[in-house]
Amino acid sequence: MSTLVDITKQLRADTTSWETHAACKTVDNAYDLFFSDDIGEISGAKRVCAECPVIAPCLEAALDNQEQWGVWGGQLFVNGEMLTVKRRRGRPPKVARPEDLMPVVPVPMHLRERAQRRTA
């Protein structure tokens, strides 16, 4: 199994894109998962990203391309802004549902300033 360091070295040596190493490439119905409005599916997409070896280049590409929707690099984009919190429609419950707790995927250090400008 390749490590993050191995893949990073390979990315620099190869002319292939980071996208070939993305964890979402192995997910069935990835479009439905990464571009969903359902909190459970968004959480699933973020869990895939949390284990992905190319999370930083993915988020960087999303910021460069000004992505409007979806989960990119472990972050949720809605209307072109990164959301730190997403909740169900309507009044919030007094006790949070376990399925509504989304994993927190940290933004890589070198992208934090750019990401801050796109946060809602």
Describe the model.
With 120 residues, the protein is mostly helical. The chain has one domain. Helix content is 36%, strand content 8%. It has a three-stranded antiparallel beta sheet. The longest helix is centred in the middle third of the chain and has 12 residues, at 39-50. It is globular, with a radius of gyration of 15 Å. It starts with a helix and ends with a helix.
What is the strand and helix layout of this fold?
Elements: H1 4-13, H2 30-34, H3 39-50, H4 55-64, E1 70-72, E2 75-78, E3 81-83, H5 112-117
Antiparallel strand pairs: 1-2, 2-3
Shape: globular
Percent of residues in β-strands? 5-15%
Range of helix content: 25-40%
Strand pairing plus helix content: what structural class?
Answer: mainly alpha
**Largest sheet strand order:** 1-2-3
Radius of gyration: 15 Å
Distance between the termini: 37 Å
Q: Helix and strand succession? A: HHHHEEEH
When the domains are counted, the total is: 1
The residue ranges in which pLDDT falls below 50 over 5 or more consecutive positions are none
Number of strands: 3
If you average the pLDDT, what whole number results? 81
Task: Specify the biggest β-sheet.
Answer: 3 strands, antiparallel
Number of helices: 5
Short characterization:
This protein has one domain.
Notable characteristics:
120 residues; mainly alpha; three-stranded antiparallel β-sheet; globular
